[in-house]
Amino acid sequence: MSTTMTAELDQATAQASGAATHTHGGKYLTFKLADEEYGVEILKVREINGIMDITSVPQMPSYMKGVINLRGKVIPVVDLRLKFALTEIEHTEQTCIIVVDVGKEIGIIVDTVSEVLDITGDNIEPPPQMGGSVDSSFILGMGKVSDTVKILLDIDKVLASDELADITAIADANSCDDDDN
Question: Considering the entire predicted model, what is its pTM?
Answer without folding.
Answer: 0.77
